[in-house]
Amino acid sequence: MERNSLAGAACPVARSVSLIGEWGSLLILREAFGGTTRFDDFQRSLGISRNLLALRLKKLVEGGVLERRPVAADAKRHEYRLTRMGEDLLPMMVAMRQWGDRWLFTPETVPADMIDTSTGSQVAPLEVRSLAGRTLSRGDIRLRSRKAGAGTAGKQA
Amino acid sequence: MERNSLAGAACPVARSVSLIGEWGSLLILREAFGGTTRFDDFQRSLGISRNLLALRLKKLVEGGVLERRPVAADAKRHEYRLTRMGEDLLPMMVAMRQWGDRWLFTPETVPADMIDTSTGSQVAPLEVRSLAGRTLSRGDIRLRSRKAGAGTAGKQA
């Protein structure tokens, strides 16, 4: 399985995995979602080697998920900020956290709740729904190819 | 960054990444969500080495995401099925596909739509909401520690 071949794969999941699915990248994104912007802070939080961190950050910047920019107009130090594309990973990050809470912790050991800062209301469990509002499970979903005449690509989420 | 240390990490995202975030595992799960159950079919779809595939499958089985069972009562062949824990990854898989569709394809090149088989209605874009129904972006969310007296763990999704 060639990593390079995945980036051009015809499947959105494969392309996403190629860009952000590397071990380490998801944790960098978790930190970025938590507000971390500085190289040294990523390094401290993740305990990852500086070389590997630099590689991962570079890939996320080149992929458009993070933006690297000077801290101030004339500064030599840079910070890493989520781009709109990066911010749009929110549902995935939330899905991953909620799944981990449910399946990899007990109710007593879940470390934290995600809450809406302005109201204190908890973040609702993500649900997959149709545009018509029906709650969907895996068996309800199939892929419909957009290629004219290509028919369906089989049941797949 | 030690992989083993991650599995016991106090963060649900880190634990999830440790279990399913490996390069390859997410693609195996994509195939499983698409209905693939046989070793040879995973192998054919992913073009991954048999050794690596066996390792990844073993980890997913041990982690409780997949179940390995004989095809029939007396069969030597086995199949791999998503457990309830595995099926519960649906929002994450959908989030990843939708993000890939939006950011790694153009509208003309998106290969397929996810649709509700019974109604033909498309799967709606996942939205993060509070229990009170408010649509949330990253800046709206913070983590509230469950440890008594621990206060908040900072803004983080």
Give the fraction of residues assigned to helices of chain A. Answer: 25-40%
Biggest interface, CB < 8 A: A-B, 88 and 88 residues
How would you write the strand order of the largest sheet of chain A?
Answer: 1-2
Multimeric state: homodimer
- Which radius of gyration of chain A do the C-alpha atoms yield? 19 Å
Report the portion of residues of chain A in β strands: 5-15%
Q: Strand pairing plus helix content of chain A: what structural class?
A: alpha+beta
Secondary-structure element string of chain A: HHHHHEEHHEE
Largest sheet geometry of chain A: 2 strands, antiparallel
**Could you tell me how far the N terminus lies from the C terminus of chain A, measured between alpha carbons in angstroms?**
22 Å
Number of strands of chain A: 4
**What is the typical, i.e. mean, pLDDT of chain A?**
87
Give the helices and strands, then pairings.
2 copies of one chain form a homodimer.
Chain A: H1 3-7, H2 12-20, H3 25-33, H4 39-46, H5 50-62, E1 66-70, E2 78-82, H6 84-87, H7 90-103, E3 112-116, E4 141-145
